[in-house]
Amino acid sequence: MAKESKAKPAGYTKQQFLASKSFTPQQKDVLNAVLEDGKLYTREEVTRLVEEFAKRKVE
Length: 59
Hints:
Radius of gyration: 14 Å
Distance between the termini: 57 Å
Structural class: mainly alpha
Number of strands: 0
Number of helices: 3
């Protein structure tokens, strides 16, 4: 009986997200500020980070 492996979602770099056509220029500005170079992120993580940034209160 083969074990089912839980595949990790694909990870992408900051540069790949900045080159993506899936985000608006404004969202890419947020990504440029929020994401770290050399770190991998899933699409879900990045979407959540953009949403959290948009909802934050400015002091």
